[in-house]
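Section 3.1 - Work completed
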Amino acid sequence: MTTYAGQRCTSTRRLFIQRDIAPKVLETLQKAYATIPTGDPLDSSTLLGPLHNDTAVKNYHKAMLHLHNIGADVLAGGKVIHPAGFENGHFVQATIVIPPSADLDLWKKELFAPILNVAIFDDLEEAIERNNAVPQGLSSSIWTRDIRNIGKYLGPAGSDCGIVNVRQVSTCLTSLTLLLCHRLMWALVVRRLVHHLEGTSGPAGVESQGEIVGGSMLDGALAR
């Protein structure tokens, strides 16, 4: 999400989290967002650089005003900032919000700013439906420990995005990393199948614990 300050077409802008793991995931995200190094884009330690111009900053500010007006829960960020030495720069905070409804138009619009909209779901089918409810459909990703959910998300009834990732930190992928992603995914499939046939649960921590679906316009999802 913070890569390119949310201005890349495949930056993650929507995150769907399964209800039983949502509190822990959101707590972890809030802590991470609170420590994001923001400032000079030429500094290798910077994770969040500036927006590209004043119009982009105004669009971010306008979006945040709208989110506040509709009663969205802002979990992190939400402000225009002026880092030391860049008082005239176009900087904003990386932001996490939970809009009051999953049926709002904001879910379908590309803002090109570091605002991550979050929704909670109960069943993976619900997350897939929301994932596919936008006109863009560029890229998506799923984080899950259940191989059945991987098959469902990659299958004909799953994500309709042009790029579909499995357990990728970012939905931003080059063609090379996409290729590696698919190879790693199939390695995971084979490993889990072997453990299943052997009647074991696999390595420690591999058991199904919940999922996430995420993406740009594009999406991401976490499911159990």
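Second construct:
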Amino acid sequence: MNYKLKSKLVFLFLIVVFLGFASVTLADVINIPNPLCLDTTSPNCISTFSQLITKITDFILDIIGVLSVLMFVIAGIFYLISAGRPEWIKRGKDTALYAAIGIAIALLGKGLILVITDVIGTTPPGP
């Protein structure tokens, strides 16, 4: 036998042996504790993927709401210090409009999710 054939047979034999041992090692069940829920009796426990997504969207909507109110204040400041300059008045009005859109998104975001899940007929994810 030549060298290439021997090396291929040895390689094939090693693959078969290692794959044979892999089935034995893969049969063991590994239990990993949930890092998002150390205390399973807590109501804030995140145990499903939908609960995780709900927590993330709630956090993002809270940030959008806070930033929108802050932008509303900044728009008011722009409008007050404009001193009659049309570009600053327009900048203040545009910022107020975008802030109002942000507040609407923050207020309607959670409600829209509930309406869609009600129409589809599934239960909304929650804690």
